[in-house]
Design goal:
mainly alpha, MetI-like fold
Length: 317
């Protein structure tokens, strides 16, 4: 187990290094010039050149990259070209919206996918099982933006139960109920759509478990099919859920970037979109690196969990 964990940790480090290089180089060939944006439309070439010199944009790319990476290891992601504020501080402030939103969305996705996926498999061929499968396929095909707008119309405009937009930035999580209420609709939007996708994998894994010999043997000894599945089949279903959930994390991160625009949430996703438009390279590369690291770390944890609970992997090792 320790050798496997160290191997996966090495691969995680390599993945982060490659991702950081790609992010840095991609942003440097991105069209536009932040120095020109700072100088304004009336800025002279001399003023633009002076700003580029002050920002250090004229130095070799390798030098700029190494300075950035050294800063990353010390927790310094640089300073915004446009606002002059530390990127690390801004990310920490925005993370109080994006991180809870992602966790809530993942919980909603699991609450949707696991019980309804198992029920759909157990009730296969019956009206309720077929209805769950059809509804899940329809919901999974819905764009997350449209789903968010529909939930706003129902729960915010018609029923008035939840706020349609915004986050209590002045009080933050010191007023937990207000903060939680502002994230419920966005989390439902992402979680229901991602949960519908995950449900199909849970259903397939459950159907496969139902057909396994050990489940049929347990049923032959007097248990009902549902009892045999719950007692002996769910561990193998759990392996599939853990694996697919790791892949779903990337979808949840992308969903958070989109949904923060819809619900006017001051999170990392919304900041990323505005910073890309403003060509604020230091902030954009810090935001992209943080989101990439989050996805890779989740994949690392999923691999360790999968290895820990699947005896076949340990035997193969």
């Amino acid at each position: 187990m320790i050798r496997y964990a160290l191997t996966r940790l090495l691969l995680l480090a390599v993945g982060l290094a490659v991702a950081s290089a790609i992010i840095f180089l991609t942003l440097r060939v991105f069209p536009g010039d932040v120095a020109q944006m700072i100088a304004g439309t009336n800025g002279t070439p001399e003023q633009v050149a002076r700003i580029r010199e002050e920002l250090g944009l004229g130095r070799p790319l390798l030098t700029q990259y190494l300075e950035w990476i050294v800063g990353v290891f010390t927790g310094d992601l640089g300073t915004s070209f446009l606002t002059g504020t530390p990127v690390t501080a801004e990310l920490a402030d925005k993370a109080q919206v994006t991180v809870p939103l992602g966790i809530l969305a993942m919980l909603v996705a699991l609450l949707v996918a696991v019980p309804f996926g198992v029920l759909s498999a157990v009730r296969r061929g019956r009206a309720d099982g077929t209805a769950i499968s059809v509804i899940a396929q329809g919901v999974a095909a819905v764009p997350v933006v449209w789903a968010g707008m529909m939930l706003v119309v129902v729960f915010a405009v018609s029923l008035g139960w939840l706020p349609a937009q915004g986050f209590p930035t002045s009080t933050g999580w010191s007023t937990p109920w207000l903060a939680l209420r502002s994230l419920l609709l966005p989390a439902l939007t992402i979680g229901v759509v991602e949960g519908a996708m995950l449900l199909r994998f849970v259903r397939s894994a459950t159907l496969q478990a139902i057909g396994e010999d050990f489940v049929r043997t347990a049923a032959a000894k007097g248990l009902t099919r549902t009892q045999a599945l719950l007692r002996h089949g769910l561990p193998s279903v759990g392996l599939s859920i853990v694996t697919v959930l790791g892949l779903q994390v990337a979808g949840i991160v992308v969903g958070a970037v989109v949904i923060e625009q819809v619900f006017n949430l001051p999170g990392i996703g919304r900041m990323l979109v505005s910073d890309v438009g403003a060509r604020d390279l230091e902030k954009v590369q810090g935001e992209l690196l943080l989101l990439t690291a989050f996805v890779l770390v989740i994949g690392f944890v999923v691999d360790l969990l999968h290895h820990a609970i699947d005896p076949r992997q340990r035997e193969a090792e």
